[in-house]
């Protein structure tokens, strides 16, 4: 099954124009010297991140892109015109890899960020480059070089600060509707969510974060069961995962503790780095429990959880405000740590460069 957050395309940079072999044939110089110009360079293919684009759906229908060829050279030492570059716009958060080697080439994570993926071929040389004292009338010229060709795999990883993880019907979509202006489809049956949803949670006037709701994960997802594994990639950029668990399942035969452990195991199988991300336990639908405090304590004990725990009701809003403020604080602290680490690294680089310039030995 294919989704609009991935696409495979072929790109062809423009070939260079050919050089020409011509000679000056003017009224007073009927046997003039060489005057053949060079061919123009072929157009390159550039990919640019654009925040106004949300999906890769356009690249599912048009799969081949070819830049303009450079013009051939002309007489009177006129150079051929350069082929026009082709700019392909993709959503912010698109990761581009070489299809054959599966090597990542570039990660376009900022609006306006550009990457030249295929370079146009150089133009051929006209015969003016081959004249010498021994060869006054060269007839040599060269053809333009072919442009680069690549098959690319485009993969969109949404730029969210927080990711929601959980079984189908855990209440992820209801939660994102409760705390943000996003309106994902909500229904009382599994697999309502078929594609990722993003919501901006505004805590204060100048404080907000982005939360991602992906299709529910089921046991066996890492081996390809269900839909959720297709979208686990969207959690890769998040700094925090919220593991939502339905502690009041409609079917009494369902064991919430078993399901919670199964989800985490699928996460570990899929990606160890994702598994090691900070993760909070969010127990949902406590409004449906008469003794919610006792149920929460029993669940945490049976699950063996030692991290942060929040008990909420996404549909009635109980505990949601406290959770969003805690998330905002975590994101700000995490950003501060990242900025400090980057600053320390920059200072270390500057210090090392200064020591080298002064002739000091760098250990």
UniProtKB/TrEMBL annotation:
UniProt keyword annotations, A-Z: Cytoplasm, GTP-binding, Hydrolase, Magnesium, Metal-binding, Nucleotide-binding
Gene Ontology biological-process annotations: ribosome biogenesis
Origin: domain of life: Bacteria
Pfam families: GTP1_OBG, MMR_HSR1
Record Gene3D superfamilies: GTP1/OBG domain, P-loop containing nucleotide triphosphate hydrolases
Record function comment: An essential GTPase which binds GTP, GDP and possibly (p)ppGpp with moderate affinity, with high nucleotide exchange rates and a fairly low GTP hydrolysis rate. Plays a role in control of the cell cycle, stress response, ribosome biogenesis and in those bacteria that undergo differentiation, in morphogenesis control.
Protein name stated in the entry: GTPase Obg
């Amino acid at each position: 099954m294919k989704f609009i957050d991935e696409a495979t395309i072929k790109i062809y940079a423009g070939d260079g124009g050919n050089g020409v072999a011509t000679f000056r044939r003017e009224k007073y110089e009927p046997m003039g010297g060489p005057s053949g110009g060079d061919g123009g360079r072929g157009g390159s293919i550039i990919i640019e991140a654009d925040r106004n684009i949300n999906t890769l759906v356009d690249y599912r229908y048009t799969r081949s892109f070819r830049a303009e060829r450079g013009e051939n050279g002309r007489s009177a030492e006129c150079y051929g015109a350069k082929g026009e570059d082709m700019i392909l716009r993709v959503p912010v958060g698109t990761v581009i890899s070489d299809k054959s080697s599966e090597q990542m080439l570039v990660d376009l994570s900022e609006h306006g960020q550009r990457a030249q993926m295929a370079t146009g071929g150089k133009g051929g040389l006209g015969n003016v480059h081959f004249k010498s004292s021994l060869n006054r009338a060269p007839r040599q010229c060269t053809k333009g070089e072919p442009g680069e060709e690549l098959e690319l795999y485009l993969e969109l990883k949404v730029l969210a600060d927080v990711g929601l993880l959980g079984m189908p019907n855990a209440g992820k979509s209801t939660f994102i509707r409760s705390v943000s202006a996003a309106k994902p489809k909500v229904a009382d049956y599994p697999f309502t969510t078929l594609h990722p949803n993003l919501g901006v949670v505004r805590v204060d006037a100048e404080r907000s974060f982005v939360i991602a709701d992906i299709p529910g994960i089921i046991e066996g997802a890492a081996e390809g069961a269900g839909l959720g594994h297709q979208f686990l990639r969207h959690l890769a950029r998040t700094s925090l995962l919220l593991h939502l668990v339905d502690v009041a399942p409609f079917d009494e035969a369902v064991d919430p503790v078993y399901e919670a452990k199964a989800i985490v195991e699928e996460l570990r199988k899929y990606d160890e780095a994702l598994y090691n991300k900070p993760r909070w336990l969010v127990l949902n639908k406590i409004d449906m429990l008469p003794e919610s405090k006792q149920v929460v304590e029993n669940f945490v004990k049976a699950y063996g959880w030692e991290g942060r725990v929040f008990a909420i009701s996404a549909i009635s809003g109980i505990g949601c405000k406290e959770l969003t403020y805690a998330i905002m604080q975590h994101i700000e602290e995490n950003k501060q740590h990242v900025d400090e680490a980057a600053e320390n690294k920059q200072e270390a680089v500057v210090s090392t460069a200064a020591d080298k310039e002064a002739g000091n030995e760098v250990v």
